[in-house]
Amino acid sequence: MSEADARTPAQIEADIVRRRQDLAAALDEIAVRVHPKTIAADTKAKVAAAVDRTAGKAYVTVNRAVSEARGQFTTEDGSPRLDRIVPVAVGVVAVVAVVAGLSWRRRRR
User: Fold this and answer.
1) Are 97 and 90 in contact (CB under 8 A)?
2) Phi/psi class of residue 42: alpha, beta or left (left: φ > 0; alpha: ψ in -120 to 50)?
3) Which segments of the chain are extended strands (E)?
4) Which long-range contacts (CB under 8 A, 24 or more apart) does 91-95 make?
5) pTM for the full model?
6) 48-74 confidence digits (pLDDT tens)
7) 73: Cβ contacts below 8 Å, ≥ 6 apart
């Protein structure tokens, strides 16, 4: 007699009940996974994580750029480097003056 033949009807019935319960649990899990609220919540979590990663990378990039820019205009002890600040300030004032002049000229026409 094989092992399958040696089982009693009660054992077979218990096996069927156990498999039905396993199948019901699997179907319940599938129903939860494909439910629109679950899909929306999962998508929202993924988007939030992506935004957090992107914001973190942007923060690091901006922080690095600011530090590098600050390093160009200050000495190692933190005092300003006028030899670099003055030419940049003059350039900014010149650009603002040109833009303002062009804007004023355009309004007069």
Assistant:
1) no
2) alpha
3) none
4) none
5) 0.47
6) 999 999 999 999 999 999 999 888 899
7) 80, 81, 84, 85, 88
